[in-house]
């Protein structure tokens, strides 16, 4: 069989440091003081405890699969399932710890939209720079230059530094360059989470074109509708392992079925622990409970669902908003609620530890898969958590006063609000 | 990583080093673009760009001339003191600029490095170009200076590139180590300017090496930049060099060893780079 991608026994190990401020960069200062402290202890004849510095964490465990030429394949899985690690290895940003990958042809990724754009440079200059970074030759860029400019609709601003571009123009230009790459293998990671509806539509259209041209597409998303629409085949990852590989509808069904009320609590903690550091805001924990009991396997819809978000504010900031989104499995936003909704004006938050609680009332959620997304932003500045928030899937069971004679899967709505009906027989 | 038959890319644990250098060649156009970007950005506001790279050597020259030449009355062997200082500022600035840019290059380009693959060695290498452009601009100013003071270089000038090459090699050798350390330790960047500052005072920039006692010269010239500066003065001003040949030769070997070690440590860093930053 002619393959485009062949992944063989791929594993990726990360070391999580427990001291010295979590994963990532260490401070030389800490390393030196720790070293001096240990040396001092040894000189004084005290026992030195074994350094408990790091812990292994396998982001990918022995994953193997093949993707045929021209196949469009979706990769699904919860946060921390290993999807990003897989993509990073495929695009050669990081090396595997064991196993290997064979790729036939050039790989490009829509994940890199705008990578390397320099705000001081003009649109024209950035097209060349960005094109080169994404692997186009100078001749290739020159050939497609007019096409890129037309696609992005920025003709009049070609010689304006991109720092003066509106965010819409910026994204259009960045996407135009990416769209004119001609890779044999295209990797797409959650692009649909950014940009406006028109942009998302453009992305989807482009990806369909690419597939039609016989090129291979690897699509990672939490958006099941998009996966169903674009991919023939899907792969399900969980805890770094490949647990299903087959026709997209079946794999998606398996994914939705496996997702328990909130998933394993451990994985939520891991997701929180591995959040990128933010200078102002640190999410400490998210607690879900019903009637003072931690949430079980399912959310019982006749009881209120309490959401408790514990966080630390590191610096005084104005307009910090902690909130959550409630989405359905197609990523449609159903409800958004902010912690300061009851207040007035834009308050400043002093540094310190905070707990914000919200309650989703009883008899509101229906027996459909939801996703709760915990988010935090500083108003008009930036998001303090990853763009799609901390995702918590919810499974809800109808336990309230509904007619139990009918099956749950006849339920077709997003909410299950029991309204008061009065039905009388007219004489 | 290697390129197999019919454009097949093989990614293996532990990555093969064999084709790294071929990959480097393959990405040569990107090198040009990265260097072009750095130059463009630095000289974007043309007037300020040029002013910036002139201001630094000129102010240092004035300060050193006043302190070492006037107040301390150090010898200058008949060369006008400002010319003596400026001729040293040229290679020093080239060295210090390259070293500083090299050291911070990986961290500065982190958003690029965590998103796209290319041989990471290109990033510190591209900083050479912008510093050479700075050097050319400062060199033009210096040429005007020499005309003003009526100092003309002789045939020695032909050897100037050799000394500049050594300055660049020294900067890159140390820069690669620093770049890797910068990634590993987030507070290392505070140390780099300190080291550069220290280097400025122990190298014969503000004074001639004539002030260094004969018996110390061997050790003094273990600092490759001391040799480079004296060499440049010899090439431009035709001054009899006060080099300690054994010391200078040894320093060249030290630089080469440092460079090889730097490339090796950089290569090792490169493989886990995206996991750390």
What average pLDDT do the residues of chain B reach? 83
Class derived from helix and strand content of chain A? alpha+beta
Q: Which range best describes the helical content of chain B: under 10%, 10-25%, 25-40%, 40-55%, 55-70% or over 70%? A: over 70%
Whole-number total of structural domains of chain B: 1
Average residue pLDDT of chain A? 81
Secondary structure tally: strands of chain A: 22
Low-confidence stretches of chain A: 19-23, 260-265
- Which percent range describes the beta-strand content of chain A? 25-35%
The neighbouring-strand order within the major sheet of chain A is: 5-6-7-3-8-9
CATH topology name of the largest domain in chain A: Rossmann fold
Keywords (chain A): ATP-binding, Nucleotide-binding, Transport
GO molecular function, one term (chain A): ATP binding
Domain ABC transporter (chain A): 43-264
InterPro entries (chain A): AAA+_ATPase (IPR003593), ABC_transporter-like_ATP-bd (IPR003439), ABC_transpr_TagH-like (IPR015860), Bact_Polysacc_Export_ATP-bd (IPR050683)
Notes on the structure:
The complex is a heterodimer of chains A (427) and B (277). Chain A has 427 residues and is α+β, with helices and mostly antiparallel strands. Chain A has 2 domains: 59-258, Rossmann fold; 265-410, Coagulation Factor XIII, Chain A, domain 1, CATH 2.70.50. In chain A, 25% of the residues lie in helices and 32% in strands. In chain A, the strands form 6 sheets. Chain A has a 6-stranded mixed sheet with strand order 5-6-7-3-8-9, sandwiched between helices. In chain A, strands 15, 16, 19, 20 and 21 form a 5-stranded antiparallel sheet that branches. Chain A is globular, with a radius of gyration of 25 Å. The N and C termini of chain A lie far apart (74 Å). Chain B has 277 residues and is mainly alpha-helical. Chain B has one domain. Chain B has a two-stranded antiparallel sheet with strand order 1-2. Chain B is globular and about 65 Å long. Chain B starts with a strand and ends with a helix. Mean pLDDT of chain B is 83; it is low at 1-5. At the A-B interface, helix 1, helix 2, strand 4 and helix 3 of A face strand 2, helix 2, helix 5, helix 7 and helix 11 of B. Strand 4 (98-104) of chain A pairs antiparallel with strand 2 (8-12) of chain B.
């Amino acid at each position: 069989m002619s393959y485009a991608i062949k992944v063989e026994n791929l594993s990726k190990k990360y070391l999580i440091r427990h001291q010295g401020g979590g994963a990532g960069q260490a401070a030389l200062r800490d390393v030196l003081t720790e070293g001096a402290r240990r040396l001092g202890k040894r000189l004084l004849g005290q026992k030195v405890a074994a350094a408990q510095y790091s812990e292994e964490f396998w982001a990918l465990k022995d994953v193997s699969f093949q993707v045929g030429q021209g196949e469009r394949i979706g990769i699904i899985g919860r946060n921390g399932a290993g999807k990003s690690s897989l993509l990073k290895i495929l695009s050669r940003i990081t090396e595997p710890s064991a196993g290997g990958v064979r790729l036939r042809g050039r790989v490009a990724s829509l994940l890199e939209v705008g990578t390397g754009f320099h705000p001081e440079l003009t649109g024209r200059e950035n097209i060349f720079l960005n094109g080169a970074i994404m692997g186009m030759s100078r001749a290739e860029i020159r050939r497609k230059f007019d096409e890129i400019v037309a696609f992005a609709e920025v003709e009049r601003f070609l010689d304006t530094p991109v720092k003066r571009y509106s965010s819409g123009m910026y994204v259009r230009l960045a996407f135009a360059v990416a769209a004119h790459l001609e890779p044999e293998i295209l990797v797409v990671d959650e692009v649909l989470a950014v940009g406006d509806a028109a942009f998302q539509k453009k992305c989807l259209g482009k990806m369909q074109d690419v597939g039609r041209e016989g090129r291979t597409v690897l699509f990672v998303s939490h958006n099941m509708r998009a996966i169903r629409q674009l991919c023939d085949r899907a792969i399900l990852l969980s805890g770094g392992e490949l647990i299903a590989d087959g026709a997209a509808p079946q794999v998606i069904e398996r994914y939705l079925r496996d997702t328990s009320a909130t998933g394993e609590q451990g994985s939520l903690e891991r997701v929180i622990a591995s959040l990128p550091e933010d200078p102002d805001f640190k999410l400490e924990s998210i607690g879900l409970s019903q009637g003072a009991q931690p949430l079980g396997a399912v959310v019982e819809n006749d009881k209120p669902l309490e959401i408790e978000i514990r966080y630390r504010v590191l610096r005084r900031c104005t307009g910090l908003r902690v909130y959550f989104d409630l989405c359905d499995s197609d990523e449609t936003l159903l409800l958004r609620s902010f912690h300061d909704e009851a207040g007035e004006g834009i308050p400043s938050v002093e540094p310190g530890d905070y707990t914000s609680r919200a309650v989703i009332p009883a008899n509101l959620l229906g027996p459909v898969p939801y996703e709760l997304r915990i988010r935090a932003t500083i108003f008009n500045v930036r998001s303090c958590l990853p763009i799609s928030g901390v995702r918590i899937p919810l499974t809800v069971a109808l336990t309230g006063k509904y007619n139990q004679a009918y099956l749950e899967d006849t339920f077709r709505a997003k909410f299950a609000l029991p309204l008061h009906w009065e039905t009388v027989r007219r004489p | 990583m290697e390129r197999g038959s019919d454009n097949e890319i093989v990614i293996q644990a532990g990555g093969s080093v064999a084709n790294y250098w071929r990959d480097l060649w393959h990405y040569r156009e990107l090198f040009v673009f990265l260097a072009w970007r750095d130059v463009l950005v630095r000289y974007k506001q043309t007037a300020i760009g040029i002013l910036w790279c002139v201001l630094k050597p000129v102010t240092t020259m004035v300060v050193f001339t006043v302190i070492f030449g006037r107040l301390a009355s150090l010898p200058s062997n008949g060369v006008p003191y400002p010319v003596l200082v400026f001729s040293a500022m040229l290679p020093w600035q080239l060295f210090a600029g390259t070293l500083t840019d090299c050291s911070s290059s990986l961290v500065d380009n982190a958003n690029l490095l965590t998103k796209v693959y290319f041989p990471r060695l290109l990033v510190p290498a591209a900083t050479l170009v912008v510093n050479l452009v700075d050097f050319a601009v400062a060199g033009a100013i210096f040429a005007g200076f020499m005309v003003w003071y009526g100092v003309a270089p002789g045939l020695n000038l032909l050897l100037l590139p050799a000394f500049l090459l050594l300055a660049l090699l020294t900067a890159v050798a140390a820069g690669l180590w620093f770049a890797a350390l910068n990634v590993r330790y987030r507070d290392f960047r505070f140390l780099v300017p300190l080291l550069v500052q220290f280097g400025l005072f122990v190298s014969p920039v503000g004074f001639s090496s004539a002030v260094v006692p004969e018996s110390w010269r061997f050790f003094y010239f273990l600092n490759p930049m001391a040799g480079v500066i004296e060499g440049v003065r010899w090439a431009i001003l035709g001054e009899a060099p006060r080099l300690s040949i054994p010391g200078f030769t040894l320093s060249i070997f030290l630089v080469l060893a440092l460079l090889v070690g730097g490339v090796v440590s950089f290569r090792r860093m490169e493989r886990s780079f995206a996991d750390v930053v």
